[in-house]
Amino acid sequence: MPAEIQPLKDTQNERDDRNIAIDRVGVKALRFPVEVREKEGGSQRTVAMTALAVDLPEHFKGTHMSRFVEVLNSHGNCLDVREMKAVPEEMLERLEASRAHVEFEFPFFRTKAAPVTGKGGVMDYTVRFEVEACSNGDSDFVCTVMVPVATLCPCSKAISEYGAHNQRGLVTFAVRSKQPIWVEDLIDLVESSASCELYSLLKRPDEKYVTERAYENPVFVEDLVRNIAGKANAQDNITWYKVEAENFESIHNHNAYAMIEKHA
Fold it and tell me: Which residues have C-beta within 8 Å of that of residue 208, sequence separation ≥ 6?
C-alpha cells in the first residue's frame, strides 16, 4: 500500500500584500510531442517547445507550476493541434485565472523537389502556434511561420558589371485569420515573394536555375516585406499580420531588416 500523503502547507495560496498583479506566470522551455495536420491530408509528428502561462491576481503569492504540466500531459503523449485550444481553457479552470496563454514552437518538414532535376529533399521550417483563452469566453490564435529565403540586391545588380551580391534571409510571418489557414499556404506565400526559394538538395542544373532565377528577380528587404504584405492584403481570410524580414548580408557586417504590421 502506498504511504498516506499528509497535508502540506500551500505557500502559493498565501496572500501577497504588495498589491501588484502579474500579467503572465508559468513554465517555459518544456518539450512536448505534437501531431500536425498537413494540407495534403496526412500528418506529421514533431516535438514542440512549449510555454504555458496565466495571469495572477495581486492577492495571490504564487501560482501552482505543476498544474501547467498536468494539463498538458492530460492530453496524452502526443498533442493534436486540433486540441490546442482546450489547453488554455483547462488552465483557466485549474489555476483559477482570467487569462491563459500557451505557445507551441516546432519544426515543420516538407519534401521539396529541386526545380530542374526534380530530386526530392526535406526542408525544415519553424512554426509557432499561440493560443489564448479568457474567462469571459474570448479567445485568440496566432500562427507564425519562419521561412528562410534567398534575396539578391537590386542596387548591386544595377551598378555591377559582373553580377550582384545575394544572401539568405529569414522571414517571420505571423497571422490571425477568420478561418484556419494551412502552414503550407503561408510558407508558399513567403517563398513566392523572395528572389528565389531555398532547397535542401540541388544538382548542377538546379543550381544554375536558382542562381539565374534570383538574378532575374532582385529584391530589397523592403521589397520582400511589401510583396508579402500585398499578398496578405489580397486574402480576406487574413485579418491581421506582422511580417519581418532579416537579410544576413554577404558583403556587410550588419543585417538588413524591415517590418510591416497590419492592425485589425
Answer: 116
